[in-house]
Amino acid sequence: MRYLAYVLRRLVATVPVLFGISLIVFFMIHLVPGDPAKTLLGIRATDKAVAALQKSFGLDKPLWEQYLDFMGRLAHGDLGRSFFYNVDASELVSGRLPATLWLVVSATVLALLISVPLAVLAASRRGSALDQVIRAVPLVGLGMPAFWVGIMLVLVFGLKLRLFPVSGFGDDVAGHLRSIVLPALTVALALTPILIRSLRTSMIAVLDSDYVVTARAKGLTHRRIILSHTLRNAAVSSVTVLGVNVAYLVGSTLVVERVFALPGIGTLMLDSIFNRDFAVVQAVTLVFAVMVVAINLLTDLAHAALDPRVELS
Amino acid sequence: MRKPIAVLAAVTIAVTGLSACGSGASDKNDTSGGNGAAAAQGGDLVIVRPGDSVSMDNTMVFSNASIWVFQQMLESLYEVTPDGKDVAPLLAESHTLSEDKLTWTFKLKQGVKFSNGQPMTSADVKFSIDKARSTEGGWEFLDVAIKNIDAPDPSTVVITTKYPWAPLLADLANFSNAILPKDYAGKSKDEFLKAPIGTGPFVWDHWTKGSELKLVKNPKYWDTGKPSLDSVTWKLVPDDNSRNVQIQGGQAHINESPPFSSVEQLKGQPGVKVDLFPSTKTDYILMNQNEKPYDDVNVRRAISYAIDREALVKTLLFGNGEVANSFLMPGVVYYDKATPGIQYDMAKAKEELAKSSVPNGFTTTFLASSGDNTDQAIAQVLQSSLKELGITVKIQNVDPSAAHDLQNDMKYEISHSYWTMDIADPDELVTFAVDPDAGSKSFFTGYRNPAVIADVKAAQKSFDPAERQRLYSRIQKQAAEDAFLAFLYYSPFSYATSTKVKGFVALPTGNYHLEDVTLSK
Fold first, then answer.
1. ipTM (interface predicted TM)
2. Which residues of B touch A44 (CB under 8 A)?
3. What is the pTM of this model?
4. In terms of CATH architecture, what is A97-306?
């Protein structure tokens, strides 16, 4: 009940955020030079044909009126129609959302699978050579741009070893799983150094605390101390770090989607901006905003679940 | 401390297992079969391309990514010959032309059916071409000479023109005049365009917009035994490098446009073939004559002389192209190799500028599309070349959509554009480029030379090839002297294909016939 009321309150608080985003995006995309009617009709378009198409798109109306139309449709759950493809923007977005969600979720899972064991190992052997290596090597991943890492992974695992498809998204779940490994790894490699360092630091702080010293004095095994007494407490701050970075990664999936030809909403966003496909740009931005808000909400809930002292209010 | 290591090991095993369980699919598409593999029937040809189709409306669309798809479903009365310089009958059997050159009578090929089983008749031809010539802002400009279309019997079509019109067969061969079933086979236009019906070798399957488009074999195709392929899938892969690795990795069979920078590297890859097909693509510098000092022919000539075209061919095309001497290109009939197009000569550039209204140079702005490597390179070459003349070039980078609008509205000073031919007659480009009243303001330059315009009109009405050559040569010579555009270079169409693909050829007009393509196992 405590969770439900909190979630509902947070969802209501999301509405003004989304409203603000819709306002900014609508005016930004409409005020940039470039006309969808002219883009669509090409270089031979007559002024009459351009005017007719602008009218059919509703672009002949004053901007404020177009915004009210947009908000009116949005209130009814209608994200508008793509000028470029002549289909509902929601249809385009829902068709492309799965690839982006697969990427974000797989990258997060992969990042956790890599960073948690390494952070635990580094914290347990603080100051050792292994600790130094675990702290230093992943930093290389942080310093390398995602598109370059992606291309290198494709060259090695896709072309040389032929272990994974070089790009694309596959046709079924098995195909999706195989296709998502390299892009997810590309994103995860950028995420792991931050996670490792954050979790290692928290674990060291916890390992130095009095109750761990007491646990050791009571004769508990090192493994039990780590798994039952340290990891959960240390995870609290790392969950926040993870939440912030995953929210950031939602935006940066665009580069990775492009390198791996993943049909996600990042590439849809980029193409739609170039085509001045206003409805799609607005729809994708709103979806991105909802995803970021949802990740922040999940982070707060996870925080509360891990730490009983955190009040959901 | 074994647990974390165990977790790592489990991840490694899971990832390796995941790759292993899918290795069958990878083998299926492996390109390592090489040249020795035998041609076979069937298969799904996968073509990767940088941009998606826009619409299947053949009368309105200008995007190649759309045209090259619907041309596999929709056929015209005539088709462009492989050399791009003539047309041959396709759905027409033959034609006769009246003495006064105004009435064309076409006999249709017998036994041709649409993919829905309905026979193709003259009523379908009349409907289709009448539709094409009544659009607004589409390809109707090709059909302006047509006065009337009659269908006296199911296998005869009579087209009457307003005046003698030499390019008619070339115009009829264009995809915009492709033959659709009358009244869209009883559907609304919108419904029809969602799954078009034609007489072509392939039929509609599905289109996931922004991702992939698939056509399947037309079992009722009139040219018995064709096509060999079961289906064709065009996949959108915007990144140049990703398209190349998909060919190398065997996930795709044809890359529609590998960048010239990657041609040498791709040539060395096993199982990959690179083709540079002769094209009609020509790049130009546009100079807006509505803006001073570009109304001065000496200024335009000075700039044209100052451009090192050889350097552009080397740096932009990696040597895979030729310097241009005319606004027409070698791939189009009546191109004149002897046209004295202005070439790089800095001494002459200085001479021309000295004679101009701005002998000491001036400052100008080059309109470039951001993210377009060609635009950026040309802008930079121009900037350094013109510096020697005392002309300061500022580069205005705007995104492609805005650049397109600014060019069309002639709100620029100097910029870059290109052209590829759609029909096998120079009239389309010549009218677009030098007739300011034809809708494009002379390639958005505002160029107007009454003598050249008169020659354009005369060439449209002449049926004598020698006379047309004389007229088009004169147009090319005068246009070069007027330097209304700076002709830069002719470049080929680059394609990277898997060696499993046989019979793939891109025509100089850019389109390709997939009914002749086979895919070996």
1. 0.76
2. 62, 137, 141, 432, 439-440
3. 0.83
4. Orthogonal Bundle (1.10)
